[in-house]
Amino acid sequence: MRILIVGAGAIGGWLAGVLWRGGAEVALLARGAALETIRARGLALIDGERRETFTLPVSDTASDLSRPDAVVLAVKTYTFAEAAAAAAPALHHGPLLVTAMNGLPWWFLDGLAGPLDGAHLDSVDPRGQAAALLTGVRPVAGVVHASTRVEAPGVVRVVATDRLILGEPRGGTSAHTAELARLVAAGGVACPLTPDIRSEIWAKLWGNASLNPVSAIVWRSAHGILGEPRLLALVHDLMAEFARVGDRLGLRLPMTVEERMAVTRKLGDFRTSMLNDAEAGRPIEVEGLLGVVVELAEKLGEPVPASRAVYALARGLGRPAAVTAP
Hints:
Layout: E1 2-6, H1 10-22, E2 25-29, H2 32-41, E3 43-47, E4 50-54, E5 58-59, E6 70-73, H3 80-87, E7 96-99, H4 129-133, E8 138-152, E9 155-167, H5 175-186, H6 197-218, H7 222-226, H8 229-249, H9 257-266, H10 273-279, H11 286-300, H12 305-315
Parallel strand pairs: 1-2, 1-6, 2-5, 3-9, 6-7, 7-8
Antiparallel strand pairs: 3-4, 8-9
Helix pairs in contact: 1-5, 6-8, 6-10, 6-11, 6-12, 11-12
């Protein structure tokens, strides 16, 4: 199976190594220092004491690479439209398009029975730029439960790995999706298939939409937030508002807020990706992680005062997210 991965960051680099290890023909669409490093020295994946280097095709132009059976977008939410445009030459023949990203995929509301069926979300895809390029693809969502980080351009360290969940919007499983899951598993990462991928996406966003922006605003890791009663109460309010928005959409969460907080505590004193980006002065994914919740609430007429306040503060952090190519 030929797979093109768009983005050579923490998730894209990790998936490239996993899929190559599993037997896929992997190519990377990258830019800048990552492109030059991988072209010259290969992609390095570090997991504990194990370091692997993968020599694989890499370019900043999709048409330079072989026609893929699947394209994986592994980029920040604010680069989605530009990543879709960069990948466009590889999409004309209708491959799988896998979103291994935070937030909600562009198709999330399409076919979701309820008050917002088919509605457009500007926080996900401003002015529908990406959707216009993706009319012929076969969408698949990947929900990543793993912690990885870029140590240097072209060098990715695996901090912790749980699983990558794959699913198609309509609930079925095509032969290509099943083969993709097999390759991920062969590369050493559990890859279950689900007929209800929306619930998995929504459940992951529940944690990201609350702890991530708060951590970026106060510059604290998980224990620094959960151990402070006022910050803990704020995260609780954010999660409760999120759950109410989901209820209006018919998206039921698998546990209560208190149960989800207990799960978070068991994960240890982790640092969120948004905290890392804020401290490094990089753009943060505030639109894709929390702005989307506020936008959904506005469309539904659902009051979410805590979410609106945290969203406003997070938008004021650092420089605005620049839309750049992958």
